[in-house]
Amino acid sequence: MYNKTGRGEPNPSQGEPPPSAPAQAPGPAPGQVGPQPLSDNPGLAKVQQVMARVLLLQEDVDEFVGKKTDKSYRCLEELLTKELLELDSVETQGQENVRQARKEAVQRIQAILDQLEKKAF
């Protein structure tokens, strides 16, 4: 996830898993991101890529201790918001499975943002 921004967030090694995740997905990776491997449907694949990055951000949110004015808080909030915007750009093309996956991903990100906000003091 962090390879997108290059901001030097606390866990730089987390920039490596998203690029390797698509390489692992065609193989036996059902338990990695969710019940389905990376899809050959472009909309669904994009949602799955976003969720792989969000899972890394979830770890950082779980470890976060600080105030809303801290740089790490603002960075996490911004990165999560960017992922929401990325999901907004996913075209469902009338496919219910893509629409549902996008909806669940948005709800997950909103829950993580709420968690981050509650942890900040």
Tell me what you see in this structure.
There is one protein chain. The chain is an all-alpha fold and 121 residues long. It is elongated. The protein is 60% helix and 0% strand. It is built from 4 helices and no strands. The protein has helices at residues 17-24, 42-63, 71-88, 96-119.
Comma- or semicolon-separated keywords:
mainly alpha; 121 residues; elongated; 4 helices; disordered N terminus
Weakly predicted, low-confidence segments: 1-36
Helical proportion? 55-70%
Strand content: under 5%
Number of helices: 4
Mean pLDDT: 79
H/E series, N to C? HHHH
Main sheet specs: none
Bulk shape: elongated
CA-based gyration radius: 15 Å
User: How many strand elements?
Assistant: 0
Measured distance between first and last alpha carbons: 26 Å
> Given the helix and strand composition, which structural class is it?
mainly alpha
Summarize the topology.
Layout (H helix, E strand, L loop, with lengths): L16 H8 L17 H22 L7 H18 L7 H24 L2
Pfam families: BAG
Organism: Lates japonicus (Japanese lates)
Keywords: Chaperone
Compact overview of the structure:
InterPro entries: BAG_chaperone_regulator, BAG_dom_sf, BAG_domain. This protein has 4 helices and no strands.
